[in-house]
Design a protein that fits this description.
Number of helices: 3
Radius of gyration: 16 Å
Structural class: mainly alpha
Distance between the termini: 42 Å
Strand content: under 5%
Largest sheet: none
Number of strands: 0
Order of helices and strands: HHH
Shape: elongated
Length: 60
């Protein structure tokens, strides 16, 4: 029974995951604000600074 619940939980959580498009050059999510981030942040910093922080939108 526990295995069935675990499988269902994994399946349901995967179905709610967003299918976001990722820029292959930067590793960042493609968003309407992407040009703003590229102009202001990536001008001086590598995109790995952003992706390694794992911060939420609110935290940024």
């Amino acid at each position: 029974m526990k295995k069935i619940i675990l499988i269902l939980a994994l399946f349901l959580s995967a179905s709610w995951a967003q299918n976001l498009e990722i820029n292959p050059d930067t590793g960042l999510i493609i968003d309407p604000d992407s040009p703003l981030v590229e102009a202001n942040c990536l001008a001086c910093h590598g995109s790995n600074l952003i992706t390694n922080m794992h911060a939420s939108r609110k935290a940024w």
